[in-house]
Amino acid sequence: xxxxxxxxxxxxxxxxxxxxxxxxxxxxxxxxxxxxxxxxxxxxxxxxxxxxxxxxxxxxxxxxxxxxxxxxxxxxxxxxxxxxxxxxxxxxxxxxxxxxxxxxxxxxxxxxxxxxxxxxxxxxxxxxxxxxxxxxxxxxxxxxxxxxxxxxxxxxxxxxxxxxxxxxxxxxxxxxxxxxxxxxxxxxxxxxxxxxxxxxxxxxxxxxxxxxxxxxxxx
Length: 219
Ligand code: DX5
Ligand code: ZN
What we know:
Elements: E1 6-9, H1 19-28, E2 34-39, H2 51-60, E3 65-70, H3 78-83, E4 86-92, H4 99-109, E5 112-117, E6 135-139, H5 154-168, E7 173-177, H6 182-191, E8 195-198, H7 200-203, H8 208-217
Parallel strand pairs: 1-8, 2-3, 3-4, 4-5, 5-6, 6-7, 7-8
């Protein structure tokens, strides 16, 4: 199956003193999703923002919110994130003891269910859950911070995941998060990724909207 070329800018790198303007820019851009990074200071060594911000962003966002939960006990908050406007809810494999239950509790809210793997977690561990998933998010940096260096091993993980998905005939999408730029983005799309998250590369550029368009068409 051929992959799509979609972009999910991460508002972790947005200017929070003018978040509304940055969301408006994303609304007008070719961005496909708005990636929202939720950090609890426990699962990852950093804090970001939470449910009140997602609720407010969802009121003005014209693109679906792709909510990446870097938190322990995600089950506690799934309904609240769904109610606040999340279209996709991603939980970490490493944070879930009963992943099948968690995935189905996401689906029960009406949101799409996604599982994220840290850089050290192999793709084959998803074999028995892959057909239940709408998306898999592969971390291409260790989660917790924007602006880190891309981990090269990710390319072969994308290929392995693409094979796993194709073998089940599922419509599960592959999203990659961390260190995405024109060079890594091109190779990731070629390897079979559908969606690229990009934070610092988009918001740190002179013309974020143009950067989003160019990321979609890198060849
Ligand atoms: C990192 C977050 C990422 C982050 C990516 O833990 O999950 O979504 O915003 O930032 P960049 O694109 O700057 O690597
Ligand atoms: Zn993320």
